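Action item from last meeting closed. Structure (60 res):
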């Protein structure tokens, strides 16, 4: 169950990164708003799930 929750949070951050209306917010802000409390943990989890960094996703 915990893995599913983390996956949902990561998916939500990814969607936020792709949303042009969220462009003014930092990646950390987006991650923290979705329940992540550690930027390093978020970065590792994001890369493991999507095969790249949040910054790369945001750049398109």
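Sequence:
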């Amino acid at each position: 169950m915990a893995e599913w929750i983390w996956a949902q949070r990561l998916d939500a951050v990814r969607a936020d990164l792709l949303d042009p209306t969220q462009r003014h917010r930092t990646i950390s802000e987006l991650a923290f708003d979705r329940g992540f409390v550690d930027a390093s943990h978020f970065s590792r989890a994001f890369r493991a799930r999507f095969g790249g960094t949040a910054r790369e996703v945001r750049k398109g």
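Note appended to the action item: The radius of gyration is 11 Å.
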